[in-house]
Specification:
mainly alpha, 12 helices, 70% helix, Hemerythrin HHE cation binding domain-containing protein, Hemerythrin-like
């Protein structure tokens, strides 16, 4: 058991509580408690007299809440995982079968325009989620994973281009007409589209195994989330403003446009 004398001797040598804790094999907060009798996370329970005790610090909360460490970021952990995969035939087979294409999303049996657009958004969101899940060059991803990230970016760029073309032709004109602030909504969306296109264009200029690519992927993911939140809010406004018949008609128009685009 660590004694107060041991901790005090190390304090006298000029060591801080974190270093003392490492040397004695105890948490820094426990070292503080042993030396002073005052808990590091005492908060309002610590009196002025307690704070004047030898070894006490003006602020000690950080000693009670040391920074966490993610073991999966260590190379030895990654190597252990790889060795487990190599030793397991089923895991090797599953890894070999996996590609960058996300699983199929079950399409709802509804046909109004907002449902059609939501379905398309979900398809793109699934690819973005897969992109976020795969480790890149900066996170120690394998060559296969890095290659898959590059493929996903290309797929996202293609899907977004088709989706935005259909929206610009058939959806945003209706938004401008139906909502009192429709012009503002449509202009805001156009600005977000432009930002996304610029990010995708920049991604095309960098190899998938570069830090620049990984940074731009982070930007793309953030933009995707912001765009989704923007249109979720817009869809609520349209749901209130448009009669169900018009929403059904919009859905048919969007489905027809999507079918024509897919057949090209």
């Amino acid at each position: 058991m660590v004694s107060r004398r041991q901790v005090r001797e190390l304090l006298d040598q000029g060591l801080d509580y974190r270093t003392i804790g490492e040397r004695l094999g105890i948490p820094a907060g426990q070292a503080h408690l042993i030396a002073t009798g005052v808990p590091a996370d005492g908060g309002d329970t610590v009196t002025a007299d307690d704070r004047r005790r030898s070894g006490a610090q003006p602020a000690s909360q950080h000693l009670a809440n040391p920074p966490t460490e993610n073991p999966t970021s260590k190379e030895m952990v990654r190597e252990w995982i790889r060795s487990r995969v190599r030793a397991d035939p089923q895991l090797r087979e599953a890894t070999a079968r996996r590609d960058a294409v996300p699983g199929r999303i079950r399409e709802p049996d509804v046909g109004n325009g907002l449902a059609v657009l939501t379905r398309e958004h979900n398809r793109i969101a699934a690819m973005v989620k897969e992109l976020k899940t795969l480790p890149g060059h900066s996170d120690g991803g394998s060559q296969e994973q890095i290659s898959q990230r590059g493929q996903l970016v290309e797929m996202i760029a293609t899907a977004m281009s088709r989706h935005e073309t259909i929206e610009n032709e058939h959806f945003w004109p209706i938004v401008r007409r139906v909502l009192p602030d429709g012009d503002s909504w449509a202009d805001g969306a156009a600005q977000r589209q432009q930002q996304g296109q610029e990010t995708l264009a920049a991604l095309g200029e960098h190899p998938a195994d570069s830090e620049e690519f990984d940074q731009l992927v982070g930007t793309l993911i953030s933009q995707s989330h912001q765009h989704a939140a923007y249109q979720d809010h817009l869809f609520l406004e349209l749901h209130r403003a448009m009669p169900s018949g018009e929403l059904e008609e919009l859905g048919e128009t969007l489905r027809r446009a999507g079918s024509q685009d897919s057949s090209r």
